[in-house]
Design a protein that fits this description.
88% of the residues lie in helices and 0% in strands. With 113 residues, it is mainly alpha-helical.
Amino acid sequence: MTLAALSLCFAAFALLCAGLPKHHAALYGSERAAPPRLRGLRTGGWTLLALAFAAAVAAEGWNRGPLLWLGGLTLAGTALALGLLPYRPRALAPAVALSLLLALAGWGWRLAA
């Protein structure tokens, strides 16, 4: 469940980042930065943030879950801002897909145990 929370934090921040016009234009070109598409990316990012919070609370309870969530947000933001976006912006979409698969694996692992 902790893996799910951390992976969802990363995917959420990546979607929120791709939902900004400047970053979306750098990733996919300015002709694909339509307002409905950007709004959908931002909505998906906020939804994943809420799911990450739920996963963190489910993993650690109310006393340590929000702390895990904030730590996951810090790690995800740092990974995006200092690692992935400046040096490998085209790897954002595969990284989001991989993080969502890891989140599903984290949920499945928790349910199987």
